[in-house]
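haha ok so turns out i had the wrong file open the whole time. this is the CORRECT one, sorry everyone. sequence first:
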Amino acid sequence: MEFCPKCGGLIISKGKSAGCSKCSYKTKNKIKLETTEVAEEKKEIGVIDEKDSVTLPVTAEDCEKCNHNEAYFWASQTRAADEAETRFFRCTKCKHTWRKYK
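then structure:
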């Protein structure tokens, strides 16, 4: 990039000649712009299957189906706002899901 020695403006190429973008300064030199860019190779992004990634907390709860004593749990407001939330459980072994009202 070249700058005008008169006012400090940017020298722009106009056909065979070049001139300042701010004042009337002209130059006979043709502007040559060179750029270099190095691009990194994109790394492959792994896809996580929902079945493989359970991010729910685990609690001690007996499964009604297989009697295993660990289950994932979460809570949701399924009824009116002034009533207690519903707790859901999913067995870590057989994946059976059930709910409990408080």
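The beta strands are 11-14, 17-20, 26-27, 58-60, 70-76, 86-91, 97-101.
again sry for the mixup
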